[in-house]
Amino acid sequence: MKNPKWKRSKTHAKRNVRRKGVHVTVSHKGNIGYDDTRSALRDVSKQRDVKKALHESEALYHTLFENTGTAMLVIHDDTTILAVNAELERISGYSKKELEGKRSWTEFVAKDRLEKMKEYHHLRRVDPKAAPRTYESKLINKQGNIIDALLTVSSIPGTRKSVVSFIDVTEHKKMEEELKRHSEHLNELVEDQTRELRGSESRLRLLTDAFPALISYVDSEQRYRFNNRAYEEWFQHSRTEITGQRINEVLGETAYQAIQRYVVEALTGKKVTYESTVPYKDGGQRYIYATYVPDFDEQGKVKGFYALVNDITERKQMEQTLQKVERYAAIGEAAAMVGHDLRNPLQVIINRLYLAKKVTKDLSYPYSDVAAKLGLDELFKELEDQIIYMNKIVSDLQDYSKPLKPELVETSLRQLIDNTFSMIQVPQNIQVSIEAFEHPKIMVDPGLMRRAFTNLIINAFQAMPSGGILTIRTSRTDNLAFISIRDTGVGIPRESIDRIFSPLYTTKAKGAGLGLPVCKRLIEAHNGNILVESQVGKGSTFTIKLPLTRGVN
Fold it and tell me: Do 442 and 539 share a domain, yes or no?
C-alpha cells in the first residue's frame, strides 16, 4: 500500500512538487492521491506555457505593427478606420482618438481620386484579383495639404477588414529623413488588433503576411526563426527553407558582408537602422531601408532581434532620375550659352579665311610663287578642317540645348542616306557598303535625321583610323524601320557602353562628348530610339528604330 496517510486525508492540502526543475504548489481539497497530483501539475504547467506564448505573440505583434517604418491603418468593410499606428498619426496630423472607430477613410481622399478608390474598395471585396494591390493616390492631411501617396492594400483573410500602408512620395528628401527616425515614433499598440491576436498565433501569421515589409526574427546564432510571406516572395524560397537558415545562407555571402556589421551591432543590444542593397528574385539588386530591434531575455541578455525591412527601390530610382534631370538641365543651359557665344566669333573666322583664300588666289607673279612656297593653300586647308570641327561642336551644343520641333516629311531612307554622304568626305582607306530599301517611305524631318546620321557616320570613321568597312543596312517590320550603322573599328569598352549617350562623356582623346547625346535626342524627337552593340577590337553597331507611322515625341 502506497502513501496510506496521504490518501486518507480529506483536508485542504498543499504540497510542493518539483517538476522539470521548477517548484510548483499544488492545492487540492478532499482526497489527494498520486494521480491527482500529476494531473494538477500538468494543468498548472500547461497554463503557464499558454500565458508565455500569448505574451510573446502580443510583444511580437506590437513591435511589428509599430516599427514598420510606413504609415499603416486597419479599415472595416464599411470604410471605418479601426486602428492606426504612430507613423500615420504623424503624417496625417490626427491622433488615434480622433480616428479609430470614428472616421471613414473616404474623408481624407482628394475629390478627384475618391470615386476610383471607392471602386477599388468594392472590387477588393467582390473579386480581390481585380483590384490593384499597390497604386498612387492623393490624400488630405489635417492642415488641408495634399499628399501624393503610394498605397498598398491587403485584405486580412477570414475578416471583413483590410490593412493599408502608404508612403508619402511628395518630398523625397524629407521622406528619407523621416524614415530614419520612424522607429522613434512607433510607440503604441493598436488595442483592437491586439484583442484579436490574443485568440490565436495563427492570426498573427496572417496579419504579418499581409504586410508589404519584410518581417523576420533572427536569433543570437544569426538564424531565421520567423519570417513573413514577403521573404518567400523576395528570395523565392519556402518558409521552411528559410527558417533555421543563417542570414548569409539566405542572402548570399556578398550581400551578407554588406550588412554584417549591422547584424553584429543588433546582437550587442543596439537598435540599428541603415540603407543597403540586397539581391532580388529577378537577379537584380533592390534598395532597402532596414531596422533591427534587439530582443532581450529576463536577465537583459540579447537573445535575437526583429528585422523590419522596407523596399525603397522606387524612391531611390526617382531620386536618381531627378538628379539626372537636374544635371542635364544645367548642361543644356551651359551648352546654349557657350554655343551662342562661340557662333559669332567662329563666323568672323570663316569670313576672314574666305577672304584670305580669295586674295591669295588672285595674287599675280611673283607674289603667287611666294604664297605657293609658303604653303598657304595647305595652311588654309588645315584651318578650314579645324573650323569645320569647331562648327560641329557649336552645332552639337545648340542641337542639345534648343527645343526640337521636327517638321515631318515623307522621305525615302535610301535618299536620306545618299544625301548624308553627299556632304561627307569618306576617307580613302574606308570602304562603304549601303543596303537600303526605297519603299515604304517614312515620316521624318530630313534635316534632323541627316544631322543624326552624319554624327554616327563620322564617329564610325573616327573609330577606324587604320581603315575598315562601314556597312549601312536598313530593314523593316509592319510598324518599324531599322537602320544599322556598323563599323569594323576599335570598339567600345564594356564599362563605357552605358555612359556613351550621357552628355560630356567621351572615350576619344579629341571630342566634346555631345555627338551621341545629340543623336539620341534627335531620334527620340521622332518617337524612335537607338541601341548599341560593341566588341573591343571588332567594331560597333548602332541601330536606329523609327516608326513607319506618323509620330513625333
Answer: yes
